Every structure is written in structure tokens, then in C-alpha cells.
User: Fold these one by one.
Assistant:
Number 1:
Amino acid sequence: MQKYYYIITYGCQMNVHESEKIAGVLNELGYSDCNDINKADIVVFNTCCIRENAENHAYGNIGMLKKLKAEKRDMIIAVGGCLTQQMGKADNLHEKFPYVDIIFGTHNLHKFKEYVLLKQSRKKPVIEIEEDSGVVCEGETPLRTSYPNAWVNITYGCNNFCSYCIVPYVRGRERSRSSENIIAEVKGLIEKGYKEITLLGQNVNSYGHGLNDLSFPKLLDKIAKLDGNFRLRFMTSHPKDFSEELARVIAENPKICRCVHLPVQSGSDAVLEAMNRKYTSAEYLYKIEILKKYVPDCAVTTDLIVGFPGETDEDFEATSSLVKKVNYASAFTFVYSRRDGTVAAKMPNQIPEEVSKKRIMELVSLVNSLTRGHSAEYVGKTIEILCEGYDDKKEMYLGRDEFGRMGYFKSETDVIGEFVNIKVLKANGVSLIGERV
Ligand code: SAH
Ligand code: SF4
Ligand code: F3S
């Protein structure tokens, strides 16, 4: 009888890709994907803990499965990822949700197959969290779900210890894959017809540290020069390591998208220092200047945090002013969330919720107005979209241009996975509506 899996993913692209690896393992074990959780024989939660609401979201959804599990005792529930990797959280989870069958962390994802087989043969839950061993796994066979895009890990972990951030604690020390393995994987993907490759790491610019291998700009240059009709993206760049060489490599290679995500977090030097970001706002703006010198039309996007401990009205004003100065194409905005175990969690002057709320609303409206301005400039222009899907509600195909802007259009034929030229007729906030030309 056919067995089915259902995976719920929270958090970043790294997790999305890791869920593809989990799907690959389940496929090997004879399970198929299904889009109805009630039908699933195994449900996997791949969790995130970057902010409190990400954790609460997962807890809520795991809690909702209690009833289904009582009706379907043979259904396996597995919980893994960053939430469970936090100190003590696996035990908490087991206490709170005793019906969860498998609990694993980020450092033992490669043992997932073993855990499923073990659980199939016994009643007792399988609970195992491992410490960071520094090992870089190879030979995984992800079941990719985002054609024509494909994610490729280049680094794992993070050494930056930004004072607010839990990632270094749950993903371990930074380690890089060999360029040989990365390039072989990318070549394979291009041969299979993938049209957009996104290189993934918490801080891609520090790729290769500790290895006698290529630097990140050299790796990017080498991949961008591979034969084939594809686009290349990368995320995330830490501003402190963003170099002139990298800007030059982007400028020289048309396959690299003119779109760089450069998280600034704050525009205030006092806050940046307390965040341990290792740059000032002037240094950040200088990096943008270098980028624009080589790649004048490059779209720049960012991440912003409001309500970091001690953030004053003046600090917040400095953030708003930097956002206007850079004129970001778009930005992710977050309210600071206190994470146990991080340095910032112990800082005095945690900001009251109402103050953070007011600031985030102001910032969101500023960012939206910039984004709308960029979108409006598109009207009348012809852009090249890589079609990545079909929107049933809008009854239109959709995809992004190389600057990361989403465009919608109608087509008589299925063009998913193809580069399509569209003339932009209308701008709707962040997205564009156009017609094929
Ligand atoms: N490695 C990447 C992204 C890390 S997580 C980088 O350094 O840019 C993505 C974003 O989540 C961060 O850029 C930051 O803006 C936000 N973030 C991280 N920890 C947070 C916290 N405790 N509260 C609110 N936002 C946070
Ligand atoms: Fe977190 Fe900073 Fe590392 Fe990004 S660079 S993952 S924000 S510690
Ligand atoms: Fe990503 Fe969340 Fe972990 S953002 S690295 S899944 S804490």
C-alpha cells in the first residue's frame, strides 16, 4: 500500500532546502508526497526559532495534530530543525507533546533515515540531539520542489554571533563545502534543466575560510562561467565582508542577477555596535557605493530590526534615514525578539511592545512606499521573467526578473521553466502585471 509524507517547513531558505533533503530520504523509504495532512503516514515539522513567533507557530501546529494522532496511531510525527536543536528544547517538546515519535536537531539531519526505520520497528519515541561535529555532509539526494529554481548549500553554520541571533547556537560553527562538490552539483542541476541556482549560506562572503580553496568571489565567478542558460543568485551577504572584488565579479558576469540582499539591521551606529554587526552606517553606505559603482542598476534589498534593547527614537530615526538614502528595492522588517542564550537577551532596556509596534508600522509604511516607487518605474518597460509557476486565483503565470521583482502574465501555453519577455502594464505594490511580447 502506498505510504504518504507531509512536511511543514518554517524559517529560511536553508530550511526549505533541508526539507527537500528530508523529502529525498522519505522518498527512498517508499513514501510519496501528499497535500492532505489527514492522509499522511508521516508528518515532519522542520522548525525555526529565529523569533518567538516562529516557535509558537510550530508549537501551535504540533498541538493541532494531537487529535489526528489519537485517531491514526500508526502515523509517525517527527519534529526537527532549529527549534529542537536549542538547549533543553527536545525534552520540553517531549513533555509537552508526548505523542511526537521522532525528535532530532540540525546536526543529525543526516541520520533521519535511521530514525524513521528505528521508529517503524519500535513503540518508544526516538529522541536524539547531537552537538556540532563540524562535519560537512555530502551525497544527499534532495527531492527538489522549486523547479526551475534550485538551492545549493555552500556554507553551513555561522561564526558571527550577532548579539540578537540564535543561529550560531543552533547551526554551529561555519564550515564550507569544497568548491569541487559545489560545482559538480551546480553542473548536474544545469544539465537537468534548472534555470536558476541560488547559493546558500548564512554569510556567503566568508566562504572558504579554513579551507585551502576558492574565495567566494572566485567561486561565484567560476560558477557564472559554466555553460548553460541559467541565472545565479546567492544569499546572504554580510556587509562586513562584502568586497570590491565581489562587486566586480557581479558586474562582469551577466548570469549573476543584479540583486543583492545586504542586511543592515539598523542605521544607528550605537545599535549596530550593540548588535555586534562589525560595521558602522557609514561603512555600510560605502559598500553600497562600491556595489553601485560597478553595478549601477543593482537592486538592493535588506533586513531591518526595530526595538533592539536600548534603541532610542533617534536610533530609529537613523534607521529610517538610512533606508531612504539607500532607497531599497524591498526589505524584510522585524520586531526584535528576545532569544534565550543570546547576548542581547541579557541587555537592560528591553523596548516595550507598544514602542516597537509603532516603529515597525512606520518602517513598514516607509519600505512599502519605496517598493511602490520602484514598481512604478517599471511600467511601460519590457522585462525578462523566469516563469516559476501558475497562480490559480489570478489565473496568470508568474516569475521574477533578475532584480527579484515578481511579474504576472497570461499565456496560452505552459511556460514554467522558460525565460519570457513581458511588457509591464501595471504595478501593484510589490508585483507587476504585464503581457507577453
Ligand atoms: N545570516 C543572515 C540571515 C539570518 S536570519 C544574515 O546575517 O543576514 C534573517 C534575519 O532575521 C536577520 O537578518 C535579522 O534581520 C532577523 N533576525 C535574526 N534574529 C532576530 C531576532 N532575535 N529578532 C528579530 N529579528 C531577528
Ligand atoms: Fe545571525 Fe548574524 Fe549569523 Fe546572520 S550573521 S546568522 S544575523 S549571527
Ligand atoms: Fe533558518 Fe530559522 Fe534556523 S531562519 S537557520 S530555520 S532559526
Number 2:
Amino acid sequence: MNIQTLPRIVATAFLAHGAARKPPSSAGSRTAWCAPALWALAALLQWGPAQAQPTLPQPQPTAAQGAARVDLPQARFSVGDNPAWAQPAFDDRAWKILRTTAPWEGQGHEGYDGFAWYRIHVVIPSSLKTGSDWPERLRLQLSAIDDADEVFLNGVRVGKTGRMPADAGGFESRSQTVRDYLVDLQTGLVRWDRNNVIAVRVYDAGGSGGFHKGLPSLSVPQRAEGVQLDQARLRHRFLGADDVQTTVVLSNRFPLPQQGDLQVQVLDQASGRVVLRAQQRVNMAPEQTAEVELTLPARPGIEASFQYVDVPTGLALGSTLVVPYVLTPPDAATPALHGASVRGAHPGTPLHHRVPATGNAPLRFSAQGLPAGLVLDAASGVISGTVPAAGRYTVRLTVNNDLGSAARDWTLVAGEQLALTPPMAWNSWHAFGTHASDALVRQAAQALIDQGLAAKGWAGVHVDDGWQAARRRADGSLQGNERFPDMEGLGRFLHERGLQFGLYSSPGATTCALYPGSLGFEAQDAATWVGWGVDHVRYDQCSYAEQLPARPTLEDHQKPYRQMGQLLRQQPRGVVFNLCQYGEHKVWTWGAQLGGHSWRMTGDIQDSWADLLATGFSMAPYAGFVGPGRFNDPDMLMLGLMGAGELRPTRLTSDEQYTHISLWSLLAAPLVLGNHLPALDEFTRGLLTNSEVIAINQDARALSAVRVLDRNGWQVWVKELEGGARAVGVFNTGPRFDRFEVDAALFGRSGQRYQPRDAWRQRDLPARNGSLTVAVPSHGVALLTIR
Ligand code: GLA
């Protein structure tokens, strides 16, 4: 029997899409907290007799502390697709039993992509209704499903998420969406106290397959469960440097009115003091929302706890917010130059380079020592032309405005190497998934400039999966689909702005989202892309596994990357090459030999703390493989408004987001954004435009930080910078705001006087000898440079 308690059910209704802190005990989950009132008021249920299937263990309702939920930990499973499998009478006794808490890959169906069905037999006890104060709906919470699903209860479709390949609009993955379906009980669909069949038709386009996030369950919800405090809908407006005005949005998803009290308590974790207590009555009409505005302190360590207490029943729902704060100071009005001090390029190839600079408009650019064949546009700061013969060309760049001027050296290294510092780009995948279009990509490119990101060095615009037409032309060449009618025009648009054009493909027959891959057309595709002006290729393994022999050798795994690496090198254009093969077969040891400039080190990242631990924080053993033109890629940045076509704010807390950027900068990881740039909020803008933090990532030595301490929830990472300085990240991976004394020996300054600087605030700290103590919120970071 699976013991779950009612508070968990109610908390799930509150499942935060924003920055709720996970309780220390439940690794990876992001549940809200609940008041004891709920425990007391929950009614105990009586369960009817279970009519178990012959071999499938019958799911049992949970009864602890008045639970009102039936867990569904197992299901019968078959690959294939047949409409008859939706019917309750279908005899599935020959089907295998799988766990519903993990994908089918790993349960005997390795490598299987395509259609599959789950059938869950469950007695639904009528006592579920008596345990609810509003017995009108059955709620099916079916975890996340990779990729698209349709759910049938006793043969009738009751829910659907994503789209199947044959659906209008084509296949759409929604692999990260937690399925939460409501069935109206008036339809009479539920067979109370008898066997019911929940049939789940799944289409998996690639990757793990099926249920993969938590334990599916069913319940008859409480009325108050219709209320959600959705952190994805919180809005923040910063008032000066010290405060933030936060709008809390409560919504009522049920067709009945709701009345409750929103109680707020704000804790300053640095002092341990409660700095605000507030309460407000909230009335919500059926299926309507209500907003409550609060002014909160905006500095590290401020945590707001919200509790909504349903007036009729006293049921309480809770959520915790790490209050966001902006550390990056505003740009000066006087001119400043930013970005990497070096760039690699192949001799004789075209170059487009935007000089990153800030200051009041209009800015005027000039350059001394620019090699022949290259010109600088004085108004836009775009350098274009042809890369000169092999050699190092140091150019003195100057930028002026009415208030003054700034100058610095920039070195163009013409030769074999590209990507001397990590690529900094925007990629379409996490904002738009397969809905990206030419118009959205151009909009993102323009936003990169208008929002001030290009001025800090963000220069790539990468079109990820979903741009390809289903069919090649008669001559075998790839073409853009109806959303990408003019790839060459898109390339021109980007280059005119000094931006780099990135494109995605797969060595397999199909990409991960089932668009045509490059298999059999490699040389033609490389030439086609370069004809469009492509500067960066992301080559994603996906269906290539089907091409491997039964017992593949390392050479078999390397073959498609070696081939594309050579083809790209032969093009009359420098193309930066990303090997997207998830860190398999020690790619970090051979990626560069095959022509790669960066290589994915892990599976796909998501926006959770657990994912940061599994990606960025797991890079420690591989630091030594990083250098100019060779970068470990722990995957894209999970920041801002994102969600592969279903835009929502990242689920990382503010502190986790500071950690994300700080760690990727220390690792010299490619910085690839996945957020919707036109809607950049103030907090995210601060994260993405801090020139001193970016300078750590773009340092010309291009080394990865080394983890020098990993103890009691603290990690210290140290990166050697040009000129003998060090960047130091002190990460608090523990559950509480805390202080930590960093021994100067950790960053090589034992017994020496040194000058620490707070990189995010861009402020010197007092020069000192000996150790340095930092105060860091849970999951946050202190990022310092040491001179
Ligand atoms: C894989 C990659 C993702 C994305 C998708 C596109 O999952 O790892 O980053 O490119 O494919 O289908």
C-alpha cells in the first residue's frame, strides 16, 4: 500500500511553476507546504473491497490521515497502437506489467520510440466522494509523459496533451507537462467500487518514453483544490535598488465560487527576522482569478511564505517564494567595450562580428590596425569582410559618445581554431520547441540587440529542431519548411547585424523531433547550410542509434561526428561544431579531434535544482579537457520565460538562477539562452547582462574552473583567469541560508594580501589577508574575482 496524505494532494493543486523551495526531505520535487489545519480537517475514508486483476496488483486507496487518493504505481504495457486498447473489455492479461514511476526505457524497452499503451486497472472507491466536500470531479494526475498522450477512462477519451504525428498541425511534444485531467462525474463514466480501466495512448518521438515524473494517482478533489497560487503568474516590478512589488495571482480552476484568506509571512534569513506579516480576504468567482499586491525587500535571503486558507473548510494551501533581487548594476552612460578579447577565424572565410559596447546612444565605433579585407561600420559596430591570412591581428577598438570614449585591444586569430572563447547564443528550442519560425527567430535576434544582450557579447542565433521541410527537394537538398521559407534571407538578416547563424541537424534519418536528419546527405547538407551562411551547427545524435551495428565500437559511435567535422572544415566558412550526443563514450576526450568545438556532456537539462546538480555541478571530473576551441557543454541556460512553446517562467529560484549563470561562467561552458527575449524581465536582464560575470566566461585562457572543495553542502570552484587573477564561486547547495569561511589557500592566496571583488555587484570588497567569509542563500552563490 502506498501511504500518501491529504496535505500532499492539496499541495499538488498548488504545484508551483515558479520559484518554490523544495523541502529538504523531498529531493527533486517542488511541493508547497500546508498548514496543520488541513491534517486535522481531512476526513478519514472507508474503502470498498478491491477487485484485483489476476496478476496485476490492485492499486490501493491511501488512508493515512484522511487521504483521498488512489496511487497508480503499475500498469499493463504494450508497444504498438490499436484503438481497441482503449476499451475496458480488451483482454490485456498477456501484457507486461511496468512501473509507472519510470520510463519504459530501462524496463525492457530500451531504444523503443513510437506508439505504446498503458492500461491501468483500478477499483475507484465511492468513499473518495464522501471524503470530498465537492464530489463533482475525478482528478487524474498522471505525471509527465514523454511525449504526447491521450487518456481514456472506460473507453471514453478524458484528456489529451501534445499532438500525435497524424494530428492536424503535426506532432508536438509536451514531455515535461504534468498531466492533470478532470473528469466530470455527472457523465457517469466512473464505475464506483468496480473495476475501471484507464488507458493511456502514448507517442514517444525519441528518448526515454512514457511516464517519467512522479507517481500517477487519482482522487476526488476538495473544493479548495481548485485554487492555485501559480508561481508562474507572479509578477515582479523592482522599485529602486531595495524593494520589489510582487503581484500574487490566485486562480480558481473549478466552476464554483471560492473564498479564502491569503496570509503572507516574509522572513529575512540573514537576520532570522520576520519582516512582514499580512493577510487579505480573497473572493473568486467560478474559474476566475484574484490578485494581491505586496511590496517586499529585494535582497539575498528574503523568503515569502504564502498560505491560502479556505474560509468554509479551513483547508490550507501553501507556497514559498525566494524573493527575486537584482545585483547587476545599471550600465554607465559613458561608453564601455565588453565581450571576449579574442576571436578565432579561418583565413579567407567571411567574418561578421558585432563589437559589444554600451553607453548612451548614439555610439560611434572606430578601429586601428584592422587587417585589409575587413571594415568596421562606425554606427553599428559591425566588422565584416574576409578573414586575412593566418596570423594574429591585434586591433585597437574605440567607442565614443557625447560623454567620452573607451578603447581596448581585440585580437583576431586567423588560423585553424574557432571558438577561442565559449559561444554565447540564443537558441530557439526552449522558448519555442518545434513552433519556431523565421519571424520568431528574427524577433529574437532583434531583441538580442534591443534588450542590450548583444552589447555584452551574446552574438549567436541558433535555430534548433523543427525548421526542416518534411521532404527534400528533387536534387536531394534540405529546405526550410513553411515556417522557414527563406533560410538564406534569415542568414543575411543575422549577418547584417553582426550576429552568427546557428542551425540544428542530426546524423540519423530523423532528428529528435522527427524532422529529416542528414543521414546519407551529409556532404550536401553541409554545403547547403554554408550556402545559407550558417556559422554554427548543432549535430544531435537522436535516431542515429538505429545505424549502429549490434556491437558498436567507439569508431562506430564517432563516425558521424568525424564525418560532419571534416565536411564542415572543408567549407568556405568557419563553422563552429557542437556534438550533441549527451556525453556518451567519453566524448570530452575525443570531441575536439573530430572537429568539435563543444560537446554535450549530459542528457537534456530541465529547469530544476536536481538538473543543475546533474549537469553543471557534475562537470568537476572533466575540467581538464576544456580550453580554447574545446568546451564541455552541460546544456542550455534554463532562465527567463521558456517552455518549448508553452511559455512560462523558469522554475529555478532566483538564487538557483544566479548559481546557474555563475557556474556556467566558471566552467567556460557555452552560454546558450533558451528564453523568449522580447519579454525579458528586469531580473533576467540583470542575470544576462553582467559584464564582469560574462568576462569570467569569456576569459581568453578559456579554462574551466576546478572544484577545490565539496563539503557539507558547500562547493568552491576556482577558475584561473588571464593575468593571474582567479574567479571563485562559493556555492551553498544546502537547504538553509548560511555563512562560509573560505580559506585563501583554496584560491592560491595563502599568506598573501589580495583584493576580492564581488563580481555580480561589481564592487571591490576590502583588501585582506587570510580567509574570506561569505553569506549565501540556499542554492545560491557568492561569485568573486581575486586579484
Ligand atoms: C534533443 C536535444 C535538445 C533539443 C531537441 C530537439 O533532445 O538534446 O537540446 O535540441 O533534441 O528535438
